[in-house]
């Protein structure tokens, strides 16, 4: 009996001690993200009793490679990332911010126009090729709504993060830059921010999901889901999220048509 009790105790300790990695898409610098998300992981650990460790990468393409290899146990990713991660590794979405996501374009030029003669030859800055709202949505809508193929009729530069886009447009590296409202609101460089403004918004789509790799037990996922749903307002404010809601993988089927076109 004592041996069985001892083995159960060892099993419980090892289960608690096992790390669960939370991967976060690097829309901002790893340093900025770590300051925010380490507070979130501390809360999640206290709430669930699970040892959760924050992870990110130096660029969005690097994050994509790690995510698509299945290295993260749970991950906060953009909607397109989720479509690929679900296909490649069977990640399942379980929560997201209640507000839908929109892509934005920013410029210093107050005479910005959607006319092809204005747009042709301009330099567009984007954080990464597969940044969903900042890149894919704006390119999709310009092709389908305005018959303007940004990749073919303009110059495109990828600069690794949303903050780098905003700085690049403000400092004249590019004429137009893609981002999202949340990261633009969080952009802190006042000298740069005062020089740029939003000139275009896309249609709204389901926002970034938090998804779990299938190796996680459903009981663990439900604990994490509950913790996100009950997150205190002061922590949600750090992430610029008002509320988390329950989601599932089916909600993101609508994203497939954006990449397909």
Automatic annotation (TrEMBL):
Keyword hit for Flavoprotein: no
Keywords for the protein's UniProt record, in alphabetical order: Signal
Signal peptide, first to last residue: 1-17
Pfam family, one: Phosphonate-bd
Organism domain of life: Bacteria
Keyword Signal applies: yes
Coiled coil stretches, renumbered: none
Protein name (Swiss-Prot/TrEMBL): Phosphate ABC transporter substrate-binding protein
Lineage: Bacteria, Pseudomonadati, Campylobacterota, Epsilonproteobacteria, Campylobacterales
């Amino acid at each position: 009996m004592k041996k069985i009790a001892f083995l159960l105790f060892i099993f419980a300790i090892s289960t608690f001690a096992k790390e669960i990695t939370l991967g976060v898409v690097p829309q901002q610098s790893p340093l900025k993200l770590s300051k925010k998300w380490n507070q979130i992981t501390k809360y999640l650990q206290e709430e669930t009793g699970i040892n959760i460790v924050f992870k990110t990468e130096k660029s969005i393409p690097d994050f994509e490679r790690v995510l698509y290899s299945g290295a993260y146990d749970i991950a906060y990713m953009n909607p397109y990332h989720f479509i690929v991660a679900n296909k490649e590794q069977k990640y399942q979405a379980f929560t997201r911010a209640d507000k839908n996501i929109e892509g934005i374009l920013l410029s210093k030029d107050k005479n910005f126009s959607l006319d092809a003669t204005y747009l042709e030859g301009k330099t567009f800055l984007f954080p990464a090729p597969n940044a969903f709202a900042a890149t894919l949505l704006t390119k999709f809508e310009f092709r389908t709504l305005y018959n303007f193929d940004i990749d073919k009729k303009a110059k495109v530069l990828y600069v690794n993060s949303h903050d780098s886009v905003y700085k690049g447009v403000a400092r004249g590296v590019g004429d137009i830059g893609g981002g999202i409202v949340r990261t633009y609101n969080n952009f802190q460089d006042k000298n740069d921010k005062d020089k740029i403004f939003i000139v275009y918004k896309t249609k709204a789509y389901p926002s970034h999901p938090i998804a779990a790799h299938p190796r996680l037990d459903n009981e663990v996922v439900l604990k994490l889901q509950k913790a996100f749903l009950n997150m205190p307002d002061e922590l949600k404010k750090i992430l610029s999220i008002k509320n988390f809601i329950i989601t599932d993988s089916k909600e993101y089927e609508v994203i497939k048509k954006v990449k397909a076109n």
